[in-house]
Amino acid sequence: MNIPAELKYTKDHEWVRIEGDIATIGITDFAQSELGDIVYVEIETVGDTVEQEAVFGTVEAVKTVSDLFMPLSGEVLELNAKLEGEPELVNKDPYGDGWMVKVKIADPAQLSSLLSADAYKSLIGA
Fold first, then answer.
1. CA distances from 103 to 1, 48, 64, 98, 124 (A)
2. What's the rounded Cα separation, in Å, for the pair 97 and 52?
3. Residue 39: left if φ>0, alpha if ψ -120 to 50, beta else—which one?
4. Residues 68 and 56: beta-carbon distance below 8 Å
5. Cα 100 from Cα 97, distance rounded (Å)
6. Rounded Cα distance, 120 and 116, in Å
7. For 94-111, what is each residue's pLDDT tens digit?
8. Is 30 helix (H, G, I), strand (E, B) or coil?
9. What distance in Å separates the CA atoms of residue 114 and residue 74, rounded to the nearest whole number?
10. Quick one: which of 100, 97, 95 has its CA closest to 79?
11. Over pLDDT 90: what percentage of the chain?
């Protein structure tokens, strides 16, 4: 199970990479393996300000549809356009080419509510 130490995590299995006031967000290796083959990613919140823990999109796998929860309040600046034609990138490279959105962080204090890699490993029993 790949859980990069430099990222932050949520109890809902999203990962967050912080670069200045921009957060890149995706789902964890654990989440994509639990979901199985991802066939569609739907995110229609670009340009919207989404509150922490609100749904910002969905991931559709062969057997299920799962909501995506925003780890930090902020404006959704960008969607990973590659996922429209290649949703399987989430399975192949969840922390790289499989990222989902970039968000301008509204409240940096919310960063303290995110999990470290070790805390996330404990959550999933890794």
1. 26, 10, 26, 15, 26
2. 24
3. alpha
4. yes
5. 9
6. 6
7. 999 999 999 999 999 999
8. helix
9. 15
10. 100
11. 98
Both tokens of 36, joined, read: 């199985």
How would you list the strands of the sheet with 101-105, edge to edge?
8-9, 14-19, 22-27, 101-105, 74-79, 49-50
User: How confident is the prediction for the chain on average, in pLDDT?
Assistant: 96
* pLDDT at position 12 over 90: yes
Gyration radius from the chain CA atoms: 13
What is the CATH number assigned to the segment(s) 8-108? 2.40.50.100
- Structural domain spans, the chain: 8-108
Q: What count of other Cβ atoms lies within 10 Å of the Cβ of residue 40?
A: 12
Residues 6+ apart with CB under 8 A from 33: 1
CA–CA separation, 22 vs 77, rounded Å? 9
User: What is the rounded distance in angstroms from the CA atom of residue 108 to the CA atom of residue 85?
Assistant: 33
pTM: 0.96
